[in-house]
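The protein record reproduced below.
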Amino acid sequence: MTRGGAYACRTAGPAVTDGGPRWRDARERARAEQSWKIQPKRSGDTAMLHRGGCTLYNSDLGFLDRDEAITAMREPGIEPCEICRPETELT
């Protein structure tokens, strides 16, 4: 490959051991799809639980695991997103 590719020559810079940015993005997307996230409450609205990959609330921080998402659904004032339906993966 060329100098900027994933298998760049070791003399061209640090070795790429994780497959490069494309693989990193794929891993991050896969992690998001297996996670949940909470959209904070806004004035007059309730907080909303989303699947990690839901595009209605874009956040790359604060992912919840399954147990945390189940706990969040039990909390008053947190509703599931009607688009991504996060509760379907929690039952």
Summary: The chain is about 25% helix and 15% strand.
